[in-house]
């Protein structure tokens, strides 16, 4: 066991990379260790279902921390699995090495894919889209097959469907809800994306549930609960993720017992243990932009929470108050969301989002809550500024294309 106490990061993703950079930028000069179970230095995950799958982004460009950066940061990379945390002794046990003594610990454990549990889920030809290894395996398989079934109509499933369709593959999307991306976007925008995918040749089955995957040794078809059978060579499952909280829960840290699940953190990203912080897809927190505790799966959330955690660990008075924002690329449409949509809001149209050029603005009475933009980056930038400043222009002004949203901050303040 090393007797040199360190700042230890468990995790090797976006939040982990940002933690390392922010800690050094903030002045931390001590021992800094990152435990990356996947066996790779941190890399970008969002492009896996988009540009990387399409072959438009190289593996080298996925990297968040290149070897020279790791060396400059003085970052010790341990490619191993963290097994347990002893909060009394302040150690992290590893699967294949001696325990690490930590001074401060950061949990950037992210989330794991929710696995299919239906008959046939273990057949050759069933893929997930969470890691580079997943994407690499799928890219190899795509050279030999043409009939694709995507189970799950969320961001990842639809991004993959769009890439596969552009490759000329036959693509069917199975979504158990009555609309696409139902957890994240409004019904108005769901309808627009349904039409877009259908126009591009994607067979979208809403309110459909996959009952089984058939085949002798590899995928041959997917059977729905309705009895319909869809011929398939490959199945891509995008049915959500599960926050990785087991190591935290086993250590006695407070975790959410019910949905959305995750490690409970305060506004400074500190857990129920004063020496342990958490950030990224695994955290549950309160936000001024949502009426109840939530968990977010986004690059923005991971980066901003990591910055706050690093600053707080170094003695700063940091709180996470950033506007949530997201994006998704599907065919030639770029979706950008500022704020958090929820049921019960009133939607107003700016431009023509249904045709890929405009925004839906969502209000809770007189308060602007969220803006969904398609092909309207100026709207997205303005919306983030408006929400951060807590300025709510009247829908009449906000939906007038003669007014740029960003200019309404001073006009309405």
Structural write-up:
The chain is α/β, with parallel strands linked by helices and 413 residues long. The protein has 12 helices and 25 strands. Strands 1, 2, 3, 4, 5, 6 and 19 form a 7-stranded mixed β-sheet that branches. The chain has a 5-stranded parallel β-sheet with strand order 8-15-9-10-11, covered by helices on one side. Strand 9, helix 6 and strand 10 form a beta-alpha-beta unit. Helix 1 packs parallel to helix 9. The longest helix has 15 residues. The radius of gyration is 22 Å and the shape is globular. 43% of the residues are buried. The model has no long low-confidence stretch (mean pLDDT 96).
Defining traits:
single chain, 413 residues, alpha/beta, seven-stranded mixed sheet, five-stranded parallel sheet, 12 helices, globular
Please tell me what the overall shape is.
globular
**Could you report the average pLDDT, rounded to the nearest whole number?**
96
Report the biggest beta sheet as strand number plus sense, adding barrel if it closes.
Answer: 7 strands, mixed
Number of helical segments? 12
Low-confidence segments, given as residue ranges, are none
Distance between the termini: 58 Å
How much helix, percentage-wise, in residues?
25-40%
Annotation, overall tally of beta strands: 25
Strand content: 25-35%
Question: Could you write a compact summary of the structure shown?
Answer:
It contains 12 helices and 25 strands. By secondary structure, the chain is an alpha/beta fold. The radius of gyration is 22 Å and the shape is globular.
Task: Produce the secondary structure layout.
Blueprint: E1 6-10, H1 14-25, E2 32-35, H2 51-54, H3 59-62, H4 67-73, E3 75-78, E4 82-86, E5 91-94, E6 100-107, E7 111-113, E8 126-128, H5 132-142, E9 147-151, H6 155-166, E10 170-175, H7 187-199, E11 203-206, E12 210-214, E13 221-224, E14 229-231, E15 234-237, E16 241-243, H8 246-250, E17 255-256, E18 262-264, E19 276-278, E20 283-284, H9 299-313, E21 325-330, E22 333-339, E23 346-352, E24 357-364, E25 367-374, H10 377-388, H11 395-398, H12 408-412
Parallel strand pairs: 1-2, 1-6, 2-3, 6-19, 8-15, 9-10, 9-15, 10-11, 18-20
Antiparallel strand pairs: 4-5, 5-6, 7-16, 12-13, 13-14, 17-18, 21-22, 22-25, 23-24, 24-25
């Amino acid at each position: 066991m090393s007797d040199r106490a360190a700042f230890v990061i468990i995790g090797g993703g976006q939040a982990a990379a940002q933690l390392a950079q922010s800690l050094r930028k903030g002045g931390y000069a001590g021992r800094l260790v990152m435990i990356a179970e996947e066996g790779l230095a941190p890399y970008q995950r969002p492009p896996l279902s988009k540009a990387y799958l399409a072959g438009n982004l190289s593996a080298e460009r996925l990297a968040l921390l290149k070897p020279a950066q790791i060396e400059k940061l003085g970052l010790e990379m341990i490619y191993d699995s963290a097994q347990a945390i002893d909060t009394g002794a302040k150690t992290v046990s590893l699967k294949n090495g001696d325990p690490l003594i930590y001074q401060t610990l950061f949990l950037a454990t992210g989330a794991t894919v929710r696995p299919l549990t239906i008959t046939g889920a273990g057949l050759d030809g069933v893929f997930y889209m969470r890691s580079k290894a997943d994407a690499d395996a799928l890219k190899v398989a795509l050279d030999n097959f043409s009939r694709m079934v995507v189970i799950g109509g969320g961001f990842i499933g639809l991004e993959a469907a769009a890439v596969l369709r552009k490759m000329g593959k036959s693509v069917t999307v199975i979504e158990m809800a009555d609309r696409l991306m139902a957890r994240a976007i409004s019904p108005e925008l769901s309808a627009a994306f349904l039409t877009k995918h259908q126009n591009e040749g994607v067979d979208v089955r809403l309110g459909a549930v996959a009952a089984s995957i058939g085949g002798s040794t590899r995928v041959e078809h997917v059977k729905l609960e309705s009895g319909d059978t869809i011929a398939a060579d490959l199945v891509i499952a995008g049915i959500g993720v599960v926050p990785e909280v087991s190591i935290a829960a086993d250590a006695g840290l407070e975790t959410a017992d019910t949905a959305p699940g995750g490690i409970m953190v305060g506004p400074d990203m500190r857990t129920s243990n004063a020496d342990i912080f958490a950030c990224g897809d695994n955290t549950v927190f309160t936000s001024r932009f949502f009426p109840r505790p939530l968990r977010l799966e986004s690059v923005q959330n991971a980066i901003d929470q990591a910055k706050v955690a690093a600053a707080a660990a170094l003695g700063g008075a940091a709180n996470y108050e950033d506007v949530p924002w997201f994006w998704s690329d599907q065919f030639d449409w770029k979706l950008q969301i500022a704020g958090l949509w929820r049921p019960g809001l009133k939607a107003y149209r700016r431009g023509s989002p249904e045709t890929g050029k405009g925004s839906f603005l969502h209000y809770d009475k007189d308060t602007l809550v969220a803006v969904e933009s398609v092909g309207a980056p100026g709207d997205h930038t303005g919306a983030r500024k408006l929400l951060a400043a807590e300025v709510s222009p009247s829908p009449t002004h906000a939906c007038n294309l003669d007014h740029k949203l960003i200019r309404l901050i001073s006009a309405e303040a």
